[in-house]
Amino acid sequence: MQFSRRSLLAAPALAMAASKRPNLVMILADDLGWGDLSLNGAPDISTPNIDSLARDGVRFTQSYSNAPECSPARCALLTGRYQQRAGGLECAIGVGDTGRYDEAAWLQSRGELGLPPADATLAPSLAKAGYDVALFGKWHLGYREKFLPVRQGFHEFFGILGGAADYYTHEEPNEGRGQKPLYLNETRVDRAGNLTDLFTEAALDWLGKRGGRPFFLYLPFTAPHDPLQNPAEFDPAAGTAPQRPKDRKTYAAMVQHLDRCVGGILARLDRMGAAQNTLVVFHSDNGGTAVGRNSPWRGGKSSVFEGGIRSPLLLRWPGRLKAGATSSQPALTMDITATLLAAAGVAPQGLRLDGMDLLPYASGSRPPAARTLFWRYKRAANRRKAVRDGRWKYVFDSGAEFLFDLESDPGESKNLLPANPAKVAELKSELTSWEAETMAPRLREFYATQR
Length: 451
Prior knowledge:
Layout: E1 23-29, H1 48-55, E2 58-60, H2 70-79, H3 102-109, H4 122-128, E3 132-138, E4 156-160, E5 182-184, E6 187-188, H5 195-208, E7 215-220, H6 248-272, E8 278-284, H7 306-309, E9 313-316, E10 325-327, H8 335-344, H9 359-363, E11 372-379, E12 382-389, E13 392-397, E14 400-405, H10 421-437, H11 444-449
Parallel strand pairs: 1-7, 1-8, 2-10, 3-4, 3-7
Antiparallel strand pairs: 2-9, 4-5, 5-6, 8-9, 11-12, 12-13, 13-14
Helix pairs in contact: 5-6
């Protein structure tokens, strides 16, 4: 898929009548390593279209995912809250609605493993304000009907419910041949093509039909999540491309394919004359896998070391945000909801946000503010937690404990825990208080049985 770009138009004055509200585009990559963008030094991958969002907008240099894995990060993104509070999702939902730790298995047994409709996403708030809202791509917040995007405030959905699928046959692992994991709203459908292309084409078609109403486009790609399949190796006879696990060249080809598709979305906004009045946000759900490049950070996906939770965050809003700017404000995935709603001038409807509006920091009208960031991740026997307060970060990794000074040691190579018992006690106390405060109400019954 090839795309061209056009020059941008002069920015109109922004008014908050429905027809003048800004458009919102949220693009989410899947398992993209921090160092897999050329703007972050990737030596073997070129990402000019994604890079253009930083060139023409703002790059957050201390941006994090809420979680080191898919489902919890997406929960935080759409609700604007810590995922522990919004449904209690703390690892990826397994293929076919399976739990991967005690609480998840308990929810699955009750048919509740997913994002509860009661934990509202930002979609209904935007819809009530006159926005057209659509999702094209990966959902991964529940397989059952009650969890579907169109039951959560989205007007239109095309994509997969699970975490990954063959990019050409669209079969999910372990789901079995003959199944149709692609959905159009609430119906399983067949489509031919590469998933990254299909999601992009659906988004482009939808954008082409927009009238005078503002729109919110949520485009969560599956790329470059495995299975690793190079689009250039598609075999028409086989109906797919070979899967090449842990192959860096295949991974790089997928990232560059993703970048071209991002370029297609940006070019369409230009052709529509909508680019100047559109806030575009780009993020990744977590750090890269072993085949990704998370440098200079330690660890990767599924860890709460920096490599598992550092995720690129780029904001472009011509005329409102300075081109080529950077912000050192610590940011989390859940801040995106607060930021999008603030840009739209829309009050949250039924949302109690944990996230903060990043626009004042992106615009430079407010200096970076101190904040404490928390992470907790559960998968099978793994129990991982972290808290960052300024330069200090405490990590609990399945029994092992660490204390790092991120200012002097951003790569987390020196464990300062033995020499700083007071700081460790302080951070552990903050973490314990946060855990108690963010308990999902629907899990109180489960926790009561564990005492």
